Amino acid sequence: MKELEELNLPGELMYSKDHEWAKKEDDTIVIGITDYAQDQLGDIVFAEMPEVGSSFEQGEEFGTLESVKAVSEIYLPVSGEIIAINDALEDEPELINEDPYENWIVVVRPSKEEQFDKLLSREEYLETLTG
Amino acid sequence: MSNGPGISGLILDEPLLWEKGKPGRTGFSMPESDVPSAPCEGSWYGDGVDLPDLSEVDVIRHYTRLSQYNFAIDTGMYPLGSCTMKYNPKLHEKLASLAPIAAAHPLLEDELSQGMLRLIYELKQFLAAITGMDQVSLQPAAGAQGELTAMLMFAAYFRKKGEQRTKIIIPDTAHGTNPASAALCGFTAVSLPSGPRGYVEPVDVAARMDDQTAGIMLTNPNTLGLFEESVREITDIVHRHGGLVYGDGANMNAVMGIVDIKRCGVDALHLNLHKTFSTPHGGGGPGAGPVCVVDELVPFLPTPVVEKDGDSYRLVDNLPDSIGRVHGFFGNFSVLVKAYCYILSMGPENLKKASQLAVLNAGYVKEALRDVLHLAFDRPCMHECVFSDKLQRGDKVTTLDMAKALIDHGFHPPTIYFPLVVPGAIMIEPTETESKDDLDTFIASFKEVVAQSSTDPEALHEAPRRPKLRRLDETRAARKPKLTGDM
To answer: Do B474 and A94 touch (CB under 8 A)?
Structure first.
């Protein structure tokens, strides 16, 4: 597994303590899991994703990722409606291991805009990993 | 490598049967037909499936060789955590396969099945006595179905009371089947993080329990191998809000005859007969997951139930509030027979002693390995102990590497990467089966593996070296499973 200094955590993204990243694109937010999360999970073999149109609260489980080690829930960093899912992950969940940032999981239309700004910065997220 | 029963041996290769067969071989002679042949409509027959032609010795060698690749509790120590891989006495097999039991027809009238019904009735009584609960259903086929049965009963109970309860609290150390069983009954799982000491904290339960919540699913001892110290406080909170407590009895092997489950405040508990009460399991079954309940839930038990009427036994179906059948006939009956034999041959004192020894063995392993492996929660453990690979990460050696290396020493690996709350978990459940000598050998082997993580980590990355197949590609097996032969 990677050392902390080996982790790829882009500075322009926001992070959650549950190891998801979030990126604002116009009035939507793109969500994926961090390099740390994919590294901890190991080879992902199945991604279960929500239906487009479903809504979740912040911190609510919106899908699961199954790796050879375990099944892990993924939690939505901001409340909102799922407006797109990354279909490619259904056949090739390993794309997340290859590049967890290029291969996003869902796009959300946020219902509470202010939640995004309160997510963790790269530095704050790193701190949760060392703590 | 010096420790452990694993040395080396000649491994015989064995192809798939399709690759082994040759046209014309046969292991069976069809008797000559003694009836005249008759024409058959063309649409009734075709080419048939391409089964290989094999002789008897081909088949016997095939399966004997495959069985030799296998590792079982009859081969060696199998410390798979949360699985209770205890030794299964052969007497049970013999008794369960006696013709009057194995050949009993489940559709016989009650008066012709008195022995079978008596066995069911008495086993229910034994399990009630062991757990302290009031009534038992033996129908569920395994633990997860026992959970489902209990959740169906919870749902029926609230429906009867005219209450709408939609949520259920499930600690994050629970087996993954708990939320699945609850969801099938329409409950939404509310996750409960375990506290800093590895226990469920009453204050966290109080914060989640309300009149919309059906109750809690509590595994005790929990999957960290810790006895939930505040179980009474937790169950009191749930009951105060009108909720019910489900006890997951997967870890009953730690507390047989020692803890009164009803007095802990549990309303329904499932048992894994195939684990705690010693019948062979793993590889998909069969198991048995009886559900034990308190009086309040008795009207909702699955039907039919066996009742005693004077000196005779009969099946009773007229329970209007019952959730109905959850299994054909009487559940996995041969498993019930084996558990019945186990309980009778052990007796109350020895059942209790089995639990005490299971706990003692786990505690012994915990104390022996705590200097070399990181102990996830430094508390007295019950029947299993949970370590992690935290101390080995500096050497880039993972839990998986160490588990695979144990195979070379002749041991089945412990449970790894579960429970999820411990990153890199190594969960060891030795059970009461292992003697101190065998535990010492296991401990010495584990210590040797750990020592190797700093002296020769590369060797561990390549472990195991001694089995027929070495490090398997688990990722490919999960992504592209091949489940059939080429027929």
So the answer is: no
Domain that holds residue A93: 18-110
Within-domain flag for B16: no
CB of B106 within 8 Å of a chain A CB? The answer is no
Q: H or E segment at A2?
A: none
Touching check for B90 and chain A: CB below 8 Å?
A: no
More confident residue, B7 or B230: B230
- State the count of interchain CB pairs (< 8 A) between A and B: 26
Sheet strands (E) in B75-171: 135-137, 167-171
Percentage of residues in chain B having pLDDT higher than 70: 98
pLDDT per residue as tens digits for the range B245-254: 999 999 999 9
Instruction: Kindly report the CATH number assigned to the domain that includes residue B336.
Output: 3.40.640.10
Burial of B231 (0-12, 13-18, 19+ CB in 10 A): buried
Query: Degrees (nearest 5) of the Cα angle A29, A30, A33?
Result: 130
Of residues B286 and B392, the one with the higher pLDDT is B392
Of B345, B370, B390, the residue at which a domain comes to its end is B345
In angstroms, the Cα distances linking B76 to B8, B45, B73, B402, B415 are 15, 49, 5, 18, 16
One domain for residues B246 and B391:
no
Count of domains for chain A: 1
CA of A41 vs chain B CAs: smallest distance (Å): 10
Neighbours of B225 (CB within 10 A): 29
Determine which of B355-359, B369-373, B428-432, B481-485 has the lowest per-residue pLDDT on average: B481-485
The interface predicted TM-score (ipTM) is 0.73
Looking at the structure, do residues B432 and B314 belong to the same domain, yes or no? no
Name the residue of chain A whose CA is nearest to B390's CA: A1
Q: Which domain holds residue B274?
A: 91-345
**B176 neighbourhood in chain A, CB within 8 Å:** 71
Q: Which chain B residue has its CA at the smallest distance from A66's CA?
A: B478
The verdict on residue B222 lying in a domain is yes
Residue B30 located in a structural domain: no
Confirm whether B255 is domain-assigned.
yes
Q: Is B418 on the interface with A (CB under 8 A)?
A: yes
Q: B475–A69: do the CB atoms touch at under 8 Å?
A: no
Two tokens at A124?
């704050």
d(CA A41, CA B361): 32
Q: How far apart are CA B267 and CA B302, in angstroms?
A: 16
Interface of A with B in 1-40 (CB under 8 A): 1, 40
Tens of pLDDT along A59-98? Answer: 999 999 999 888 888 999 999 999 999 999 999 999 999 9
Residues 333-392 of B with CB under 8 A from A: none
Q: How many domains does chain B have?
A: 2
Q: Is the same domain home to B356 and B313?
A: no
Contact B475 A1 (CB under 8 A): no
pLDDT band at B122 (very low <50, low <70, confident <90, very high): very high
Cβ-based burial of B190 (10 A; exposed 0-12, middle 13-18, buried ≥19): middle
Residue A89 in 3-state DSSP?
Answer: helix
